[in-house]
Amino acid sequence: MANYHPDTRLLNEYSSGTLPLAQSVCVSLHLNYCDQCRRAHQQLQQLGSALFEEMAPQQVDDSLLRTVMSRLDDEVQPLSYQSTPAADAPPPLIQRLMRGDYEDLGWEKVTSDVRMSRLRTGDIDNEFALYHIRAGASIPRHTHKGTELTLVLEGGFSDEEGHYEVGDFIMRDAEQQHSPTATRDRDCICIGVLDAPIKFTDWKYRVVNPFLKIQPS
Ligand SMILES: [Zn+2]
């Protein structure tokens, strides 16, 4: 059972569909581990649809009606339902991460103890990556310009503010400098979503910046 959760604002944006895609995947994965947030998400969705139904109808002008009518004449491509997954099935990327199926991904070495794999989500504003931290090792101390979301998939890690296990969801903003250390008993695999490039603050790790496509300060 997860002990660290997305805050209300994030959950609200997730439920209303306004959260960027990479961050949504991170929240969605957390919901797989957390009954409490899953229930809150369902309630927010119900609330959203109730509010939508109560909205007063808006007056529209004739041009909109003409546009709609003209589109009715357009030829419509038939939809194929054969490969459509069940409506409530998680997207393939999430299913794969939930299965722990990430060995064959393209891993880049960050330090001797840390490797990362960037995954494409189609969200160009957010970097979505898996981090593999060897048992007992640390990710170099770093800051970032925007928000950093982390979700633990395997093992656990600690930083200056707490200890995190599988399913835990951690949000850090630009001011919080931290240095996560994996637990000693096993390797840690976590997801990191960044909405601005990461910046290592220890001078000796500046050399790894090219791996992460970081502009040195
Ligand atoms: Zn939760």
> Gyration radius, to the nearest Å?
21 Å
Q: What structural class should be given to the helix and strand makeup? A: alpha+beta
Going by CATH, the architecture of the largest domain would be Sandwich
Stretches where pLDDT is under 50 for at least 5 consecutive residues are 76-85, 206-217
First-to-last CA distance = 40 Å
- Distinct ligands: zinc ion
Strand content: 15-25%
* Count of separate DSSP helical elements: 5
Spatial strand sequence of the major β-sheet:
1-2-3-10-5-8
Q: Characterize the biggest β-sheet.
A: 6 strands, antiparallel
User: Number of folding domains?
Assistant: 2
Q: Outline, from the CA principal axes?
A: elongated
Kindly report the name of the CATH homologous superfamily of the largest domain. Jelly Rolls
Q: Which CATH class of the largest domain?
A: Mainly Beta
Query: What's the order of the H and E elements?
Result: HHHHHEEEEEEEEEEE
